[in-house]
Design brief:
Blueprint: E1 4-12, E2 18-23, E3 26-32, E4 43-46, E5 58-62, E6 72-75, E7 77-82, H1 95-104, E8 107-112, H2 123-136, E9 140-143, H3 159-164, E10 171-172, H4 182-192, E11 198-201, E12 214-215, H5 218-223, E13 227-228, H6 230-247, E14 251-253, H7 259-270, E15 275-279, H8 281-285, H9 307-318, E16 324-325, H10 334-337, H11 354-363, H12 370-384, E17 403-413, E18 432-442, E19 445-449, E20 452-453
Parallel strand pairs: 1-5, 1-6, 4-5, 7-8, 8-9, 10-11, 11-14, 12-13, 14-15, 15-16
Antiparallel strand pairs: 1-2, 2-3, 6-17, 17-18, 18-19, 19-20
Amino acid sequence: MSTTYILRGVRPLGGDPVDVVLADGVISEITAAGEATVPDASHGVTAPGEATVPDGDVVVLDARASDGSGLVLLPGLVDLHTHLREPGREDAETVWSGTRAAAAGGFTAVHAMANTTPVADTAGVVEQVRRLGEEAGWADVHPVGAVTVGLAGERLAELGAMADSAARVRVFSDDGRCVHDPILMRRALEYVKAFDGVVAQHAQEPRLTEGAQMNEGVVSGEIGLTGWPAVAEEAIIARDVLLAEHVGSRLHVCHLSTARSVEIIRWAKSRGVNVTAEVTPHHLILTDELARDYDPVFKVNPPLRTAEDVEAVRQGLADGTIDIVATDHAPHPVEDKDCEWSAAAFGMTGLETALSVVQATMVDTGRLTWADVARVLSTAPARIGRIDDRQGRPLAAGEPANLVLVDPAAHRMIDGSAQVTASANTPFRGMELPGRVVATFLRGRATVLDGVPVDALEGAAR
Ligand SMILES: NC(=O)N[C@@H](CC(=O)O)C(=O)O
Ligand SMILES: [Zn+2]
Ligand SMILES: [Zn+2]
């Protein structure tokens, strides 16, 4: 029999306190605070900071935040853009370690990007990744299929076979590379319509970014690194929204990072183009000023931009122009990051800090409510990935218990080596961020309790 959890005095989407009962994989009951009936005498009670491993059939979680108010209950977070690195780069991350980090960050589903070795461009590879996710059990893994064979940008991959496979792929992307040939991009957009898929574009005009190391601007000029102009991103986004309009298909723009990119998406949406866009946590908070010390932990694709761009993406997320926050969690082994800037790999980890960065930049500044956070980090990405029959569901009785409990009053110092991910390239190390994931539930089973993955709690029953 599975453990029943009673969450006492939690605040759904930050609203008024209620009791929520999780049983048999679903939210079985939501009652007024203090009124949930404990169905069995054998239960343990835990207060925040006093994790006890579930030993009875019923566990009561006293869901007080560190300031005494109720913990915020959100639908389990859904990441549309995660690099899990398996197969091929298990030294950086595996499906197991990456989804465990995802659970620690409050995620119950991730979309695993296709730039693995081999590339996820066949039904065989996407089915393998899906199976590894199922075996790990930390979060649902939805493989992204490559748009072109080997990400080479020359021939379309077997999009239909991946869509029809057991992995039911709906998101296709050459992420890491741009689908820059317009005829291939057009064909991909046309092809995915047959199964309601979406092409997620890494918008980077390759000719404008040859040898580029960081954002092109004042800082790149001063420190002498080859610049990466904003227009290299904007030109591809502009082209792609026109193509998506022309063929009447669904386009998703990955990790949008410039003020004018936001303008283009705003314009496209006003025309009724079927386009969605994501911003990463790091582009919501960090700027290219951080490159001055040549620390490659800040080297990322697209590059960190200017303070004006940061303000524009925050505004775009607040007004709904940008649909979602996606982590672009990009783990790299130490040797690929602990080297000189120009030799270092692009990318930073993000699963365990995403919610805190969104709280710091958007909630604590009054620009988004917790209900908005549920939309941009759960409901909307689940909808774009077409997994909204299982994830990003309303907080209501009968719904699958994919949930995260957050303590917004907590503060924590980010320590690179104390992260759950197998890689240490967090740009937030040494920074204090608000908010802490207290517990994550995947179909009613706790994957995280008291902020710790459940297998790390002594004697944990999985
Ligand atoms: N974001 C990055 O800087 N790197 C990503 C690729 C990508 O998302 O473009 C990676 O796979 O490492
Ligand atoms: Zn990318
Ligand atoms: Zn990526």
